[in-house]
Design brief:
Layout: H1 16-30, E1 37-38, H2 50-63, H3 79-90, E2 102-105, H4 108-114, E3 124-129, H5 133-141, E4 145-150, E5 168-172, H6 184-197, E6 200-204, E7 230-235, H7 237-240, E8 248-251, E9 257-259, E10 265-267, H8 268-279, H9 285-293, H10 297-323, E11 328-330, E12 336-340, H11 347-358, E13 360-361, E14 363-364, E15 375-379, H12 384-399
Parallel strand pairs: 1-13, 3-4, 3-5, 5-6, 6-7
Antiparallel strand pairs: 2-8, 7-8, 9-10, 11-12, 12-15, 14-15
Helix pairs in contact: 2-9, 3-9, 4-5, 10-12
């Protein structure tokens, strides 16, 4: 008799975005004449920029020659990309890292889930509420003890330090789903807490490219002491349009230590390297060349134009909703806008009405956790035309709610 991992049985029946997809598909089947605008899942709409496409095509051509063919590459990522990451994403911000502290992967979602492999099951994990579901679900699959940190309007969507000692802390800023941020002094409190309690911060910085204000850190390593307590995740998905191409990286400084039951220090960089070499064969050569091109002058300029366009969409959403009386958060340093659902409706009730009456899709806040109930997430990753039309529909829809 093959026993199952019963921790899976405590999860929600379906992953949040799978549930949304099923609801939308059913509505579209029943209403084929309706035009649906999707501002729910955080998938980009702008194609991969020319600089990255050019690099990818060149790499494909290389692979078709005897001299240029690449078989299995280094599991940790090719040196050319790791070097570009260190120089462009960190040295430019005054952060010194070594290339072997960077691990190239096929997505930040995968990294955020897979990182739990190197930590003991009995670690206490702190997770914000609301939260990106992957942090919660992957730890529930392992049977870990979860401490929830409420993130609400009452605390300006800034999580408060745990009242009890925790061993692992997930932080995501700019935040998904709320679109809010932490300033450097806010993040310094978490680094200090982690140092005092020998905790590890798992810092998801997938949206750092959308930061527009000066005092918002783009990396946790901008905070003194963070290399002793933090693992950082970054992605090319939302910046370079790699949602379907798949490329990201995780940073594990060699100064970062975990502990055995006996209290012996263990190098987490070495543990992750061992895990990577065992379970992963690396990101394809063509994709890594495309990722490298994001750091070229052409690539930087083209990607910045895309980010600027998405931020303009966020502005359209934020201001358009505020004009008709919605309470709105985020949308300034983030592609996500977090709105308060009106008239005491639940998040899913609002989802259904918005789909049925305005034909616009968003994400119910309750899908991100208990404290997300009564809120709703919209993304700025649509086209400008669809974003303008969606907000027009929502404004007209809001009149019916009065």
């Amino acid at each position: 008799m093959s026993l199952v991992n019963e921790n899976f049985l405590s999860l929600q029946d379906s992953y949040l975005f799978s549930t949304i997809a099923k609801k939308v598909a059913k509505f579209m089947e029943e209403n084929p004449n309706k035009t649906i605008i999707k501002l729910g899942i955080g998938d980009v709409t702008k194609p991969i920029v020319p600089a990255c496409l050019k690099a990818m095509h060149q790499a494909v051509d290389e692979m078709g020659t005897k001299e240029g063919f690449k078989g299995y590459g280094p599991e940790q990522g090719y040196e050319f990309l790791r070097k570009a990451i260190v120089e462009n994403d960190y040295q430019t911000r005054g952060v010194e890292l070594e290339e072997d502290e960077i691990f190239v992967s096929d997505g930040a979602k995968c990294d955020c889930g897979n990182i739990v492999d190197i930590f003991a099951q009995n670690n206490k994990v702190a997770i914000t509420d609301p939260v990106y579901p992957v942090y919660l679900d992957t730890n529930m699959m392992c049977g870990r003890n979860i401490t929830y940190l409420p993130v609400t309007a009452k605390n300006d969507f800034k999580p408060e330090l745990p009242k009890e000692k925790v061993d692992m802390i997930y932080l995501c800023f700019p935040n998904n789903p709320t679109g809010t941020v932490l300033e450097k002094e806010d993040l310094k409190k978490w680094v200090d807490y982690a140092k005092q309690n020998q905790s590890i911060i798992l810092y998801d910085a997938a949206y750092e490219a959308f930061i527009t204000e000066d005092n918002i850190p783009h990396s946790i390593y901008e905070i003194e002491g963070a290399k002793e307590v933090a693992i950082e995740f970054k992605s090319y998905s939302k910046t370079a349009g790699f949602t379907g191409v798949r490329c990201a990286y995780v940073v594990i400084p060699k100064t970062l230590k975990g502990y055995t039951k006996e209290g012996k220090e263990v190098d987490l960089n070495q543990l992750w390297n061992r895990r990577t070499c065992t379970k992963f064969n690396g990101v394809s050569y063509m994709v890594q060349r495309a990722a490298e091109a994001t750091y070229s002058e052409e690539g930087k300029k083209q990607i910045q134009e895309n980010i600027k366009a998405y931020l303009e969409n966020a502005k359209i959403i934020k201001h358009g909703l505020e004009e008709v009386g919605f309470t709105v958060y985020g949308g300034v340093n983030s592609p996500y806008v977090w709105l308060k659902v009106p008239n005491g409706m639940t998040s899913w009730e609002f989802f259904d009405k918005l789909l049925e009456e305005a034909n616009v899709v968003g994400t119910p806040g309750s899908g991100f956790g208990t404290c997300g109930e009564g809120y709703f997430r919209l993304t700025a990753f649509g086209t400008k035309e669809n974003t303008v039309e969606a907000i027009k529909r929502i404004q007209e829809f809001s009149d019916k709610l009065q």
